[in-house]
Amino acid sequence: MPDERICAREGCENPVSRKQSNAIFCSPWCANKAANDRRYQRPESLTPEPPPPSDLLFGRREKADLFHVEDVQEGEFAIYWADSHIPFVDWPLMGAIGKVIHDFQPRREFEVGDIQDCYDLSRFDKNPTRLTDLTDEGRQTVTLIDHHKSLAPDMEQYFDPGNHGDRLQSWLCRNAGSLYGLKDVDTGEPILSIPSLLKLKERGVHYYPFTSRLDYQGFIITHGPKRGGGGKLCAKWMGDYIRSSGVCFHFHRNQSYSWIGDRGQPQTFYAVGPTCTLDPDYLPFPDWHQGFGYSRVINGKVHFQHVHVFDRRFTVEGKVYKY
Question: Nearest-5° angle of CA 119, CA 82, CA 226?
Fold first, then answer.
């Protein structure tokens, strides 16, 4: 007569061996597993409640996210620049970039982080003889944004605060937590924040938080990582991290890294240099190189062109600019 006894461990349907008449488990492994299940089983009354969704853990949090550029048109021209670090911006270079905006009338301008330096909020040693403050930085920043808009009135502008703009949130968290969540009584918007202080919403500027990614027809635009970055091989590091064609700034170096994607498609990630001066007071001989970028949409794809600035001149679509 066949032995129809089944293993006593919950979920196991193996038969128990005939050789052991008093056995209730099919194997020593199942016996040990059942014992462990009993040992670590918690009474239902002691089972903790599931945590609330992460979005409900904080009253205010700037969450990095993936944003999409809408209404992309074939052939549209876009310009990219960052790391002006106002007031350390190279104004003659920005004047030349302004000429590009005037000549080509971009449909979009991507201001990809560290437009203002937020020098006073830095954790690092600061020169006490500096003659400008946060108000001066903000005034120069909006003057530059407004000037570019006046050169191309139909241009949409996108603003990333970068890690330097993020210094405001970090400083408030460390030194003035009670003020961090201060909001406008009418609008409910945070008062002490970069978009509020620069009045970006009123200016019609699209804002996306630091470390966010902007998806422009599959071409990823981001300032850079919060931490890390692969040292001098920053374009390769970012390409391996993002795993998509795209562009970053932050590292103050001009680089590109290309590879073949998992579907055989060519991919390239660019790291683009700054538009600030190359003589900061805290770094005597910086390994930096100025640059910016532009692109056109061709057959639905973003074709990015990396512009290297040499000897106070550069070329955009065959036209030479000097300053």
Answer: 65
What phi and psi values does residue 114 have, to the nearest 5 degrees? 55, 40
Report the helix count and the strand count for the chain, using DSSP H and E: 8, 14
Q: How large is the C-alpha radius of gyration of the chain?
A: 28
Closest to 223 measured CA to CA, from 240, 257, 247 = 247
Give per-residue pLDDT as tens, 64-122: 889 999 999 999 999 999 999 999 999 999 999 999 999 999 999 999 999 998 888 77
Q: HSE of 141 in the Cβ direction (CA atoms, 13 Å)?
A: 31
pLDDT at residue 203 in the model:
94
- The rounded Cα 34 to chain-centroid distance in angstroms is 48
- What are the distances in angstroms from CA 95 to CA 91, 147, 151? 6, 10, 11
Alpha helix locations (H) across the chain? Answer: 28-40, 91-104, 134-151, 162-165, 167-175, 177-180, 194-197, 234-242
Asked if 270 and 246 count as a contact pair (C-beta separation under 8 A), the reply is yes
